[in-house]
Specification:
It is a single chain. The protein has about 190 residues and is mainly alpha-helical. The protein has one domain (about 1-175). The protein is built from six helices and no strands. It has helices at about 1-60, 60-75, 85-105, 105-110, 115-150, 150-155. Helix 1 packs parallel to helix 3 (about 85-105), helix 1 (about 1-60) packs antiparallel against helix 5 (about 115-150) and helix 2 packs antiparallel against helix 3 (about 85-105).
């Protein structure tokens, strides 16, 4: 009888420890996404200013502007942490790439100080998003591993924990998603 009591107490203790570990890792993943979300919101706030600046030089490029508007709408329609949000953010990255590629056709725009400032700000935000995405994916990997390993794998589904997706860009789109670096060839007064 004493042995059975210790076995039950031990089982409950293991259940509590496993649950707390998985719950903590799940929370870490949510916090990591919140960090990404802050950067993504800053990027979203920067885009309208960039679009307006580009419109001043290339107002007839409606297709690119429509792509940016549709990407913003997709982001606003998605919520939470999941594939629909990840897809919407990838769509925005693609729209930004097209917007920046458009700039190559307008040399006077590349010299515009406001545009250069916005391009530099966007480049910095993309670097921050990339770093935050790596941290999020690391937290996701740790969480997923915890529910795949013993004893977590036995209890995860019973406790309401399931494998979660990574925040990835499709393989052939990774190269496309890179935002060109800012190069300012203007000489400073000496």
């Amino acid at each position: 009888m004493n042995g059975l009591f210790l076995f039950v107490i031990g089982g409950v203790a293991i259940l509590i420890v496993v649950y707390n570990r998985i719950a903590a890792l799940s929370q870490r993943r949510r916090n990591a996404f919140a960090d990404i979300d802050v950067q993504l919101q800053q990027r979203l706030d920067t885009i309208p200013n960039m679009v307006e600046t580009v419109k001043g030089y290339a107002g007839h490029e409606h297709k690119v502007f429509k792509e940016v508007i549709e990407a913003r709408a997709a982001i606003n329609d998605s919520y939470g942490i999941g594939p629909s949000r990840f897809k919407a953010e990838a769509q925005m990255t693609k729209a930004i790439r097209h917007l920046l590629a458009l700039v190559e056709n307008y040399p006077e725009l590349k010299a515009d100080q406001n545009f250069l400032y916005l391009q530099n700000e966007l480049s910095e935000l993309e670097n921050k998003i990339s770093a935050a995405r790596r941290f999020f994916n690391s937290a996701t990997a740790e969480y997923n591993t915890s529910i795949q390993q013993f004893p977590g794998n036995l209890m995860a589904r019973l406790l309401g924990f399931f494998e979660e997706p990574f925040f990835e860009i499709d393989g052939d789109k990774k190269e496309q998603a890179k935002i060109p670096p800012v190069v300012n060839m203007a000489q400073k007064d000496r």
